[in-house]
Amino acid sequence: MSAYLEVSGVNQRFGGLQALNDCGFAIAQGGITCMVGPNGAGKTTIFNVITGFLRPDTGHVAFRGRRLDGLRPQAIVAAGIARSFQNLRLFVDLTALENVLVGLPSGFGEAPLGALFRPFHTARLDRARRAQAMERLEHVGLADRAAEKVRNLSYGEQKLLTVARLLATGAELLLLDEPASGLAAGALDQVMALLRRLQGEGKTLLVVEHNTRVVQQIADHVLFLHQGHLMAEGTPAQIIADPALAEIYFGGAL
Amino acid sequence: MDYFYSYLILAEIYVLLGLSTNLLVGVVGIFSVSQAAVFGVGAYIVSDFLLSGTLSFLPALAVAAVACIVLNVLLTLPSLRVSGDYFVVTSFGIQLLATAVFTNWTGGTGGANGLPGVPPPDLFGFPLEETRQILGFTTVAAGLGCLAFWLSMRAPYGRLLKAIREDELAVAAAGKDVLRAKVSAAALAGAFAGVAGGVYATYMSFIDPSSFDLDASVLLLTMVVVGGARTLAGSIVGPVVLLALPQLLQLVAIPTTVAASARQLLYGVLLIAFAVFRPQGLAGERL
């Protein structure tokens, strides 16, 4: 049986930098996999490869046994994989609800001809979409902030909103780039609980995370990347207990 | 009264241009400084058809609209490859190129001498010769333009375009076709500009390259800045206010030789003042 997501033999060079070096791993359906590794290990680069933002020099990505090579980002979202960004990339001049609405799968009235020539149909369907988007906001606990412009939301709320926008795509495999970074303890617990709940609802999560406490608490499986290569994998306890990995990760500080 | 009507007609034609520029620059964030060139192509196409007698006004207007849709899509395509400052430079070059063609292609445009004697617009064989009739026509045209803009902005389409202006990459990550949305916005903006050009030529009955040069493109941008980006009200207020200024200047006793440069000066000062002190314009949002 083939793996749920399988990355194999990916090489990516940026000028003189070998960002990904024969990078390969597989993840199982339904779990939370955390990807760790020092800065520059290639974590975000592999996200870009999986989601079609970057075509690697060599290598393959397969999802549910289907090769994704060369597909554009929109096709990959349609196939069921969506990602968030480390720097959030929310639409800060739009409201929280509108951000989620943009995340929903394309519907009627998103092309000009439908919007212009069937305005009532467009408005009716958009009301249904608003209700759907509202559900996603409720899901992450932001329903009361729906009409607020994103620039007025707190950082923690913005982080939750990126998850709501991600959920709106309907993707089953969610790639989260540091969903917990920069959060105070309370907000951190909220995000971790949310990720656990998403797992319970059948989503599969691949999460880049630096905070070892977060990794210990949420990860079923850990991938350790170093210099663009999968150096080790295992349970959180196994990875954290490995002195060689700690040496790489913390530069000998521990 | 006719004097006031003619101001209204011009203002309504420029409302169509304001909508076109606001859609492209304000909503989608494609910073084009060549919208006057598209306006000009619409004007010349309609004029040439009417002067040669090959098509009547409405079919000529339709051809101009289609041609400007295609043209504007082509002119906007570089924005998919080069972004931000580099696109402005590209667009600037396109505008200069267009002015050069308008000025030198005497066969199609009459060159610097322009095209005199463009017949008035007609609807199904009834020529609109009186100012009031033309005003009725431009009011309907501008009204339809405003309706189209309003419907687009309140639909998911408008939301998608606004999101693209903020972060194209995030829109792509949400599974949307950014290219298709941008091309369709350019097409819509092209249609507005082409129709405005055709109506302008038949109303003025004389056109020359000075109406479609870089100054004209900058005037359109000034309208968006002064009126305000991304709102219907802003797209209307900008042209209405900026076209009223030269009329007001005429009330002040300054020699006509000075008036033209005084107008440019005033536009420049307004552009700077609004950009610095009121970036959201009179009735819109920050560009």
Commentary on this structure:
Chain A has helices spanning 43-50, 73-79, 96-103, 112-117, 119-140, 155-168, 185-200, 212-218, 236-241, 243-250, and strands at residues 5-14, 17-27, 32-36, 58-63, 66-67, 81-83, 173-177, 204-208, 221-226, 229-234. Chain A has 254 residues and is of the alpha/beta class. Chain A folds into 2 domains: 1-80 and 172-254, P-loop containing nucleotide triphosphate hydrolases (Rossmann fold, 3-Layer(aba) Sandwich), CATH 3.40.50; 94-170, no CATH class. In chain A, the strands form 2 sheets. In chain A, strands 6-7-8-3-9-10 form a 6-stranded mixed sheet, sandwiched between helices. In chain A, strand 4 and strand 5 form a beta hairpin. In chain A, helix 3 crosses helix 5. Chain A is globular. The N and C termini of chain A lie far apart (41 Å). Chain B has 287 residues and is mainly α. Chain B has one domain (2-212). Chain B has helices at residues 2-27, 35-52, 57-76, 78-81, 85-104, 106-109, 131-154, 156-166, 168-173, 178-204, 214-227, 232-251, 256-277; strands at residues 122-123, 126-127. The longest helix of chain B has 27 residues, at 178-204. Classes of the chains: A alpha/beta (254), B mainly alpha (287). Chain A binds chain B through residues 51, 53, 72-74, 77-78, 82-85, 89-94, 98-99, 101-103, 105-112, 114-116, 119, 122-123, 126, 129, 165, 168-169, and chain B through 148, 151-152, 154-160, 162-163, 166-167, 169-177, 180-181, 184-185, 187-188, 285.
